[in-house]
């Protein structure tokens, strides 16, 4: 973790672990402080189900960075994302550049 002059905390890719289709950030003691959980359905859709950031780190862009990692993974692996958690839905509304991996939810089955 580094802190820019603007006071925003930034997480480098080296601090974000991939575990299957999920991403985790741990503190220096190895405790999980932020994560995003996903599930891939049989028809190949990635369901972005939960984005969780510890209360003391909220508001620093960490959740957004985790969603960005999911978007990058989906692009690399040819998956379409169905955002389920309210934070992910908001991120997709805020970032039209993510819409290339946004699933047509009418065609996605859970």
Write up what this structure looks like.
By secondary structure, the protein is of the alpha+beta class. Helix content is 23%, strand content 32%. It contains 2 helices and 7 strands. It has helices at residues 62-77, 86-94; strands at 2-3, 9-10, 16-19, 22-26, 32-40, 45-53, 80-83. It has a 5-stranded mixed beta sheet. Strand 6 (45-53), helix 1 (62-77) and strand 7 form a beta-alpha-beta unit. The longest helix has 16 residues, at 62-77. The N and C termini lie far apart (35 Å). Residues 1-9 have low confidence and may be disordered.
Task: Please give a handful of descriptors for the protein shown.
110 residues; 7 strands; alpha+beta; 2 helices; 5-stranded mixed sheet; two-stranded antiparallel ribbon; 23% helix
**Gap from first CA to last CA:** 35 Å
Spans of at least 5 consecutive residues whose pLDDT stays below 50 are 1-9
SS strand fraction:
25-35%
Q: Care to count the β-strands?
A: 7
Give the strand line-up of the largest sheet.
3-4-5-6-7
Q: How would you characterize the largest beta sheet? A: 5 strands, mixed
The mean pLDDT is: 86
- Rounded to an integer in angstroms, the radius of gyration calculated over CA atoms is 14 Å
Sum this structure up briefly.
With 110 residues, this protein is α+β, with helices and mostly antiparallel strands.
Mind sketching the topology for me?
Blueprint: E1 2-3, E2 9-10, E3 16-19, E4 22-26, E5 32-40, E6 45-53, H1 62-77, E7 80-83, H2 86-94
Parallel strand pairs: 6-7
Antiparallel strand pairs: 1-2, 3-4, 4-5, 5-6
